[in-house]
């Protein structure tokens, strides 16, 4: 539906933009490895040190998995 509406009004569609898929993959990678709340002081202050360590560990595991997918 979204694609059809963009097409109807003559706007560029993600499927018609060269390399859009690669850009989306990089954006998804960044978003998954460093979620927005990691840079929110308010969120960080509400976490215990133990919880922060737990989040760091989980994100580290995600990073390793994602980098492995890209052969790093």
Give your account of this protein's structure.
The chain is mostly helical and 72 residues long. It folds into two domains: 33 residues, no CATH class; 37 residues. The protein has four helices and no strands. The model has no long low-confidence stretch (mean pLDDT 87). The radius of gyration is 18 Å and the shape is elongated.
Give me a quick take on this structure.
By secondary structure, the protein is an all-alpha fold. The protein contains four helices and no strands.
- The end-to-end distance, rounded to whole angstroms, is 37 Å
Structural domains: how many: 2
Mean pLDDT: 87
Helix percentage:
55-70%
Rg result: 18 Å
| Element pattern in H and E | HHHH
How much of the sequence lies in strands comes to: under 5%
Show unreliable segments.
none
The shape, in one word, is elongated
Total of DSSP H or I helical runs spanning 4+ residues: 4
Largest sheet: none
Number of strands: 0
Structural class: mainly alpha
Topology:
Blueprint: H1 2-8, H2 20-33, H3 41-45, H4 49-69
Any descriptors?
4 helices; 2 domains; elongated; 72 residues; single chain; mainly alpha
């Amino acid at each position: 539906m979204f694609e059809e509406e963009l097409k109807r009004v003559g706007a560029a569609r993600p499927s018609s933009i060269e390399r859009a898929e690669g850009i989306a993959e990089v954006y998804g990678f960044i978003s998954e490895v460093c979620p927005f709340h990691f840079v929110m002081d308010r969120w960080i202050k509400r976490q215990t040190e133990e919880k922060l360590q737990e989040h760091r560990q989980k994100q580290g595991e995600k990073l390793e998995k994602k980098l492995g997918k890209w052969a790093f």
